[in-house]
Design brief:
Length: about 325
């Protein structure tokens, strides 16, 4: 039986979680926990996530993320694939790390936002691991309170959700809210009983039915969550067609402003969006990896700060995806 399609909204906030098979304790190993946090940070920076809450338990994780223009399915494929590959390499294992594809649900109200932040950060309390979330290292709680340097959380975005005049008052409001949720035992509810999950018709429904007319996948061709995949040769051919830059031009020693901009676009799409290794792309265009790193960082900065550049990258990505989808039909 085919999997149910998932509808996604761009630039939306989602509660995302996934478990490892058979409840095995994987992330109680500090090395594996840190590797997972590091992988999440990489995806956050590449895809423009704003992480509002997170908690990594021994056998599952919770994330509350606001996506950018990169679709959730692509970011999650990168994240779970990276964590799985790293784990298997370190342990010399083969096979799947995750129990199933991740679950996600849209968080689209202020009340649900406040509840999901509390639910996620009180997860270790609900599990009986600690009595106070301050005693649990692998969550965003300490970051929000300023007790440690930011690891994943965009603190000002969370603080703003409590609508206080100062950061100090907002942090106190956050603590008061967690205490209220804990006293009411709202953090002990099953996932399916949480307000933003309770209305889901099935486990793969990401967006509520009433919003389905607005939902779309990134390539706008199908309702399938998984987007098109492609080999490097196919990507190169489609990039040349759509960008009007040839690989030979990128291999040249010319350094005009326009060509450097084209190299930034190629690097951001190939490495940042389609997941090719930077070493592979560096070899493709006969450049060193340090140049690729510089272009990727410039591309990420432009993607964040320059709406015209972001629009061009999104359109290039969309057209490449559309062409590949058409080829695969």
């Amino acid at each position: 039986m085919p999997r149910k399609p998932r509808l996604l909204l761009p630039e939306a906030t989602y509660h995302v979680y996934c478990r490892v098979p058979r409840g095995e304790f994987v992330f109680d190993d500090p090395r594996e926990a840190q590797a997972s946090v590091d992988a999440t940070r990489v995806v956050r920076d590449l895809d423009g996530w704003r992480i509002l809450a997170w908690c990594l338990m021994a056998n599952h994780y919770h994330l509350v993320v606001k996506t950018g223009t990169v679709p959730l399915w692509r970011s999650m494929a990168r994240l779970q694939g990276s964590v799985s590959r790293g784990f298997n390499k370190r342990k010399r294992y083969l096979g799947r790390l995750w129990q199933s594809r991740y679950r996600a649900r849209l968080v689209d109200s202020q009340d649900d936002f406040l509840q999901v932040v509390a639910y996620v950060h009180l997860n270790p309390v609900a599990a009986g691991i600690v009595d106070d979330p301050l005693d649990y290292v692998h969550s965003g709680h300490l970051e929000i309170l300023g007790r440690c340097p930011p690891r994943l959380i965009v603190v000002h975005s969370v603080i703003a959700g409590f609508e206080c005049k100062s950061t100090k008052h907002a942090r106190q409001a956050y603590l008061d809210w967690l205490s209220m949720v804990a006293a009411a035992k709202g953090h002990e509810r099953q996932l399916r009983d949480l307000p933003w999950w309770a209305g889901a018709r099935h486990v793969d429904e990401v967006v509520p039915e009433e919003l389905c007319s607005q939902a779309e996948t990134f390539d706008r061709l199908s309702l399938e969550e998984e987007g098109p995949t492609l080999e490097l040769d196919d990507f190169v051919h489609r990039f040349e067609t759509e960008s009007q830059w040839t690989i030979d031009e990128h291999c040249s020693n010319r350094r005009t402003q326009e060509l450097v901009r084209g190299r930034i676009e190629l690097t951001l799409l190939a490495v940042g969006r389609y997941g090719f290794r930077s070493g592979t792309i560096a070899k493709l265009i006969d450049k060193d990896r340090s140049s690729l790193t510089r272009w990727l960082n410039l591309g990420l900065r432009l993607q964040r700060d320059n709406s015209a550049f972001r629009h061009r990258i999104d359109n290039l990505d969309r057209r490449i995806g559309q062409i590949i989808s058409t080829m695969q039909q």
